[in-house]
Design a protein that fits this description.
Helix content: 25-40%
Number of helices: 2
Number of strands: 4
Structural class: alpha+beta
Oligomer: single chain
CATH topology: GMP Synthetase, Chain A, domain 3
Strand content: 25-35%
Largest sheet: 4 strands, mixed
CATH architecture: 2-Layer Sandwich
Strand order of the largest sheet: 3-2-1-4
Order of helices and strands: HEEHEE
Shape: globular
Distance between the termini: 48 Å
CATH class: Alpha Beta
Amino acid sequence: MQGSERSAREQSILMSLWGALLGQVTPNMRAIFVDWNETFLCVYFVYDGAFTEEEKEAAECIGSEVCADFFDSEFDLQCNRIDYPQPISCPGKCVFMRKEPVVRK
């Protein structure tokens, strides 16, 4: 039973986040990850280059929409700069990743 509860929570989190992302993804967002447990939820935004105050506010709006769906959880949102072509390493599940050219060595 516990496994199906976790699966239902995972599905709810992912659906909430995907809905909140509609129309909000900016060109310099490289990836968005989400990580959670029973009482905590964190969304990580990874940007290519400096992100503007407007982009930070957009991320906070996305976070607010998700947070409203999970009011019983602690919530954190992190915006990080990792310029292309640096590899992205982030905890949790990837919910968005932009298509980037393959770096050939």
